[in-house]
Amino acid sequence: MAEHYFTEKPGSQRAIKEISVEIRGIPFIFRTDRGVFSRGKLDRGTRLLIDAMDLDGANQILDLGCGYGPIGIVAAKLAPESEVIMVDVNERACELARENAVLNRVANTKVLCGDGFRPVRGMRFDLVLCNPPIRAGKSVVFSLIAEAREFLKPGGSLLVVARTKQGSKSILKHMSEVFDVALEIEKGGGYRVMKGANTGGGLD
Description:
There is one protein chain. By secondary structure, this protein is α/β, with parallel strands linked by helices. It has a single domain (17-197), classed as 3-Layer(aba) Sandwich (Rossmann fold), CATH 3.40.50.150. 26% of the residues lie in helices and 31% in strands. It has five helices and nine strands. The chain has helices spanning 44-52, 70-78, 91-103, 138-148, 168-178, and strands spanning 17-23, 26-32, 60-64, 83-88, 109-113, 125-130, 152-163, 181-188, 191-197. Strands 5-4-3-6-7-9-8 form a seven-stranded mixed beta sheet, sandwiched between helices. A hairpin with a 2-residue loop joins β8 and β9. The protein starts with 16 loop residues before the first strand and ends in a 7-residue tail after the last strand.
């Protein structure tokens, strides 16, 4: 079976690569490696999600499936008073995310390794950010979306990015079944960012 970026313990030979990128006007450096998502560059979906995320009032933020950490680290840099938890099943990705948090001088992050929401059982968030593992299958993605509801505070919201050609419409439909309100908030480069929230706040 081919190894994927959602493999728990990647077996591919290490080949650290550093990428420099400006995001929301701020320069970042990220260490990436074989066996993690989008090793060679910041992928367009991740960038679109970062550009679309509104961190106002988000004190507890979860980056679900963080990879080497760009979404959570940018959120931590933009909202230094917030606590940002980053989670990934891939142990190599978690290691890189921790290194990248130090490299980019963000101290308000914590990286937890584990599958889906398991590492954050009992916690609640104002904002959950997710570039989901589409290659793992829609059932996995839909399960994460359904589970997200119980991990949000009242008025909290979930942001998901997906490629238009890889089922963004079906993802939005599923979000509308899980949340009181679900809508597309950004699109570009073949990707769409969707937001789900329960009434009582979280959507402007």
